[in-house]
Specification:
The protein is an alpha+beta fold. Helix content is about 45%, strand content about 15%. The protein is built from three helices and five strands. The protein has helices at about 1-20, 25-45, 50-70, and strands at about 75, 80-85, 90-95, 105, 120. A three-stranded antiparallel sheet has the order 2-3-4, with no helix packed on it. About 5% of the residues are buried. Bound molecules: zinc ion.
Length: about 120
Amino acid sequence: MAVLAKAVKQDADSLLEKGHRKMDEKKVREAIKAMENQIAIIQKIPKYLGLKEKTDKKIEERQTAIEALEKQLPKKVDMRTEYKDLNGAMVCFEGFCPSCGCAVEYYRNKSCNRCTQMLDWSKN
Ligand SMILES: [Zn+2]
């Protein structure tokens, strides 16, 4: 157990060192796909025999998971505005969260403070 904890910590440290995102985008996409596949399977379960309520609940749980996972995938900031100083050097970027419309700022927001959507600040 202690060995595992140590390994996890080292992993987290090396990720932070390299400035990686908290979650691997490829893995997040795979998890979303897996949830969607499960929903498709659950939808095929017969809705008679009083199972509908249970299947609806299971589908809803997976849709919630998909919603949360999708926030881990960076989305382009809306209305991204560049601010430059008098010498033309970039000072900062501002814009709006593509998921909830909250105002966001490059230096403060890798993700939205209100809805946790990860933000993509690249130009195009
Ligand atoms: Zn937001």
